[in-house]
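Quick question, first post here. What does this chain look like in 3D?
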Amino acid sequence: MRGRRTTGALLAVTVSTTLVGACGTRTPPAPDPAPAPRWGAQPHQMLAATASDRVGQFVADAAGFALYRSDRDSADPPQSTCDGVCARTWPPVLVSEHTMTAGVDPTLVGSVARPDGRRQVTLAGRPLYRHAGDRRAGDLSGQGLDGVWFAVTPEGRKAPAESATPSAKDGGGS
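> Answer (accepted):
Ran it through. Tokens below.
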């Protein structure tokens, strides 16, 4: 009989402690997950011809952000030389399920394997990048940086450089 009372008392204490603990303390809700980065592989990648007074025609993504190419990369065979720290300033345009074009010849669109195993979109063999310094659609903050980075034209060529070329100290990086 005594064993039953001890078990019953122990059960009552456990239930009471649990109820008091549940009522007296509230666990804060888990924070919302961090927002997804704005760069990276999207379900659909868009390469669209657009224009600006600054460089003439260039290619932008679906959100209107300029796409760039690097003179350090090669087109034949396609090869990306920007990874690590460079890829933080110049995020690669990654292959998605569907790559759509508007004003860009789809036969010029391809891809290349990156050192990390992901695939990067190419245009006329040149790997494509975004510039982390571009804050809104139409920005061309990466144009001509270090004499290496240029907005890409719908034909895959580099957009004309401006007369005053920004340098790495101005945020060009590589």
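The chain has a mean pLDDT of 78.
DSSP finds two helices and ten strands in the chain.
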